[in-house]
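Internal tracking record. Fields below are filled automatically when a chain is submitted to the structure queue. Please do not edit lines marked as system-generated. If the sequence contains nonstandard residues, flag them in the REMARKS field before resubmitting.
Queue: standard
Priority: normal
Entity type: single polypeptide chain
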Amino acid sequence: PLAESGGDLVQPGGSLLLSCQASEWRFNYYHIFWIRQVPGKGRLEWVATIGMDGSRTDYADSVKGRFTISRDNAKKVIFLQMNNLKAEDTARYYCATSTGGQSRGQGTQVTVSS
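SYSTEM-GENERATED OUTPUT FOLLOWS
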C-alpha cells in the first residue's frame, strides 16, 4: 500500500512537508489523494488530488493557496507541502487512491498548536 510520513507538532504559521511512499510501481498509474481525519471524528476530509503524471492538481478550498501536492514517479513518492498551517489543519493525514481512503497507510499526525 502507501506509507505516510512527515507529520509533527508545529506552531500556527509554520510549514511541514508530508511524504507518501508507494510500495509498488502500479501506484504511478493512479490519481493520488491526500485526505485527513480529525481526531475523534470518523469523517475523512479530502485535501488534495494529483493526476498520474502530476500535471493536474486540485485542492479543497480550505487549503488552497497554502498546500501544494506533487509527485516524483521515479521514486514512487507523493508530497504534500503545507505552509501557513492553522489550528484547524490538525488531523491525521493519509494518502490514498480514493477519497474514501482506499490503499491508505497508517497515516501521519499533524498537530498545529502554540
